[in-house]
Design a protein that fits this description.
The complex is a heterodimer of chains A (112) and B (111). Chain A is built from no helices and 11 strands. Chain A has 112 residues and is an all-beta fold. With 111 residues, chain B is mostly beta strands. Classes of the chains: A mainly beta (112), B mainly beta (111).
Amino acid sequence: SQTIHQWPATLVQPVGSPLSLECTVEGTSNPNLYWYRQAAGRGLQLLFYSVGIGQISSEVPQNLSASRPQDRQFILSSKKLLLSDSGFYLCASSGSSYNEQFFGPGTRLTVL
Amino acid sequence: DAKTTQPTSMDCAEGRAANLPCNHSTISGNEYVYWYRQIHSQGPQYIIHGLKNNETNEMASLIITEDRKSSTLILPHATLRDTAVYYCIVRVTSGTYKYIFGTGTRLKVLA
């Protein structure tokens, strides 16, 4: 099975500061990769997904961007954080379009 | 928008079967039904998935109606550790890779 690494586990950032969250995957090659955000007490919102290096699909217009510089590396970024960017960010990986997704432990971001 | 509808919350007595319903009335013929659960402050965990036949694994059973417009996840002997939010997901369309999570059902297993 796949192992998803995310760091940091928690992060507190001031409004207007940049952001970089990293996700790496072990145990598979050519995975589909995903970034989700979960606001407190809410469901998961799909932010970005990627089917290959350099290929990023954005689901919602927002203050965030994603990049996939390597096959098993997925990065979520922002140039200037907003208060509304606070939430629990989850990276996920799947082996193919019909396989289940494996989730990382998540990063809890608080923007003050 | 999520293509599934689930009750917001449910309670279940420890040791009893937990039956979690999900409506997916607009499901297409090639769309699978997936179930995940999320224990507080952790990433979601895959439970089971199916297309049209009932499925069973070591965690749960999935019953899909013949018209595929609804399904039920069954935890045969619920324990306190099964307390979590359970998500029913239908793949959006074939050829894409997206899973759209709804708000799920918050299952509370009572001692």
